[in-house]
Write a structure and sequence with these properties.
Elements lengths: L2 E3 L1 E9 L4 E9 L4 E7 L1 H11 L3 H7 L1 H13 L2 E11 L2 E9 L4 E6 L1 H11 L3 E4 H7 L1 E2 L2 H4 L7 H18 L3 H17 L2
Parallel strand pairs: 5-8
Antiparallel strand pairs: 1-8, 2-3, 3-4, 4-9, 5-6, 6-7
Length: 191
C-alpha cells in the first residue's frame, strides 16, 4: 500500500433528523483532494481544542489518549505515524504505528483517534492513496454544490479565507477567530 501525508482541512457541522454530526475534511493540500470523515461532536470538540494549540488540556480530556499515554510510558514506546488504511462500507479502518526504537507495533483505532493522536504527538497522518483516489473530492467542490441563491457566497468565502490566512501569518489570532466565525456562519447558511 502507498500512502500520502494528509492534514485536517476543515470541520463542518450539520444537523440531520437523527443526529448532530460533524464532517472533518482530511486531505492533501498539494493535490486539493480531500476525504470527508464523519465524527462525533465530542471528537470535533477535541480536534478543535488541539488545533487551538491546547494539547495539554486535550491530553486530559480524551480517554483514548490517556490509555495510550500509559501504554507508551510502561513500554517505552513512541508514536511514529498514524494511518487511515482502508474504507469499507463507509467505515474507515485506521491504525497508529508505535516503536521503541527497535521494534514496531501497530494498533488499530478509529479514524478520529488516529487524527487526534497524530496532532497531539506531532507525527505524520498518512492516508492510503486508494482512499484518496476513490473517495477524494476537491475541497472547493463542496462549495460548488451550493444552491443557486447561495453561490454569491463563494466569492465572500474566498475573500474571508484569504483574510484568515493573512491574520494567521501576522499572528493576529483574535481577528482570525472573528473571520473564522464569519466563515462558519456563511457555511451554515449554505446548508
Amino acid at each position: 500500500m502507498s500512502y500520502k501525508n494528509v492534514l485536517p482541512l476543515g470541520l463542518f457541522h450539520g444537523l440531520t433528523e437523527t443526529a448532530d454530526s460533524y464532517i472533518l475534511m482530511i486531505g492533501e493540500p498539494s493535490t486539493g483532494l480531500s476525504v470527508p470523515i464523519r465524527i462525533q461532536p465530542h471528537e470535533a470538540c477535541t480536534i478543535c481544542t488541539i488545533l487551538e494549540q491546547d494539547k495539554d488540556a486535550t491530553k486530559k480530556m480524551t480517554d483514548t489518549y490517556q490509555l495510550l499515554d500509559k501504554i507508551m510510558k510502561v513500554f517505552g514506546l513512541g508514536v511514529k505515524e498514524a494511518h487511515i488504511d482502508d474504507l469499507q462500507a463507509g467505515i474507515f479502518r485506521s491504525s497508529i504505528l508505535m516503536t521503541d526504537g527497535f521494534n514496531a507495533m501497530t494498533i488499530e483505532c478509529s479514524a478520529s483517534d488516529a487524527i487526534i493522536i497524530s496532532i497531539i504527538e506531532e507525527c505524520p497522518l498518512l492516508m492510503n492513496n486508494k482512499i484518496l483516489d476513490e473517495a477524494g473530492c476537491e475541497f472547493s467542490a463542496l462549495e460548488d454544490n451550493l444552491p443557486p441563491n447561495k453561490k454569491g457566497k463563494r466569492n465572500q468565502l474566498d475573500e474571508l479565507r484569504k483574510e484568515l490566512e493573512d491574520c494567521e501569518a501576522r499572528e493576529d489570532y483574535e481577528k482570525a477567530a472573528e473571520i473564522q466565525s464569519q466563515i462558519d456562519e456563511l457555511l451554515r447558511q449554505s446548508e
